[in-house]
From TrEMBL:
Membrane topology: Single-pass type I membrane protein
Keyword Endoplasmic reticulum: no
InterPro entries per UniProt: Ig-like_dom, Ig-like_dom_sf, Ig-like_fold, Ig/MHC_CS, Ig_C1-set, MHC_class-I_related, MHC_I-like_Ag-recog, MHC_I-like_Ag-recog_sf
Protein known as: Major histocompatibility complex class I-related protein
Positions of the Ig-like domain: 107-203
Position of the signal peptide: 1-18
Entry GO CC: external side of plasma membrane; extracellular space; MHC class I protein complex
Cell location: Membrane
GO biological process: antigen processing and presentation of peptide antigen via MHC class I; immune response
Transmembrane residue ranges: 202-227
Record keywords, A-Z: Disulfide bond, Glycoprotein, Immunity, Membrane, MHC I, Signal, Transmembrane, Transmembrane helix
The keyword Plastid belongs to this UniProt entry's keyword annotation: no
PANTHER family according to UniProt: MAJOR HISTOCOMPATIBILITY COMPLEX CLASS I-RELATED GENE PROTEIN, MHC CLASS I-RELATED
Length: 251
């Protein structure tokens, strides 16, 4: 990608009541100059007539109108040559900064959440944040088919740290068992997250069953430890459990 940084300076001079003249300077920096194209160019005009030129090849400010060469001393050309060399270096630095900025990208962080705004109406949100540049594609699919009419799209907004954020949402049928997936594409990166639709009653039953299983495992573990640590019984006499150490008898 070739970046151009133009700069135009305009001065208006009124020499008489009948006519006004303009003095304009055009400066242009090119990030990737080709054959015959200088990296930096500066041209001065009075009205539409060129009067001075400078480029990164000659590195000299030169007159383009005879009256300019006749009326300005050599130190003028040397002084402005040094000034334009400074402009040339500044354009180079700014072009590099712009190249780093536009070549830089941050992938999106994507997550799915669900919210019930009204009884029986559940909405799935797919949110992306922390991405740059701001161009991003986000769609919802139901059972593998793209949804269009049922989807709401949020604006792509700046996050305040140089990145952007946005969202897409879709309303769910509480009675269905459809599978929804959010597809995000950004700078060649493709992210897919699935949100499985389940009714709230099914979710509550699943949580209760899971809790019962966990409780059963905990109680079984406690019972097993208690059984291992029980006192031993021989011939009707109860002995506490002891640890046997093997020792060698003295010779």
């Amino acid at each position: 990608m070739v970046l151009l940084v133009p700069l135009i300076t305009v001065f208006m001079v009124k020499l008489s009541h009948a006519r006004t003249h303009s003095l304009r300077y055009f400066r242009l920096g090119v990030s990737d100059p080709g054959h015959g194209v200088p990296e930096f160019i500066s041209v001065g005009y009075v009205d539409s007539h060129p009067i001075t030129t400078y480029d990164s090849v000659t590195r000299q400010k030169e007159p383009r109108a005879p009256w300019m060469a006749e009326n300005l001393a050599p130190d003028h050309w040397e002084r402005y040559t040094q000034l334009l060399r400074g402009w040339q270096q500044m354009f180079k630095v700014e072009l590099r900064r712009l190249q780093r900025h536009y070549n830089h990208s941050e992938p999106p962080l994507v997550r799915i959440s669900r919210k019930e705004f009204f009884p029986g109406i559940t909405t799935l949100f797919c949110r992306a944040h922390g991405f740059y540049p701001p161009e991003i594609s986000m769609i919802w699919k139901k059972n593998g088919e793209e949804l269009v009419q049922e989807v709401d799209y949020g604006d792509i907004l700046p996050s305040g740290d140089g990145t952007y954020q946005t969202w897409v949402s879709v309303e769910l049928d509480p009675q269905s068992r459809d599978i929804y997936s959010c597809h995000v594409e950004h700078c060649g990166l493709h992210v897919v997250l699935q949100g499985h639709q389940e009714s709230e009653s099914i979710l509550l039953v699943m949580k209760a069953v899971f809790g019962a299983i966990v409780l059963t495992i905990v109680l079984a573990g406690v019972g097993f430890l208690a059984w291992r640590r029980r006192p031993r019984e021989q011939n009707g006499v109860v002995y506490p459990s002891t640890r046997i150490h093997e020792c060698s008898s003295p010779s």
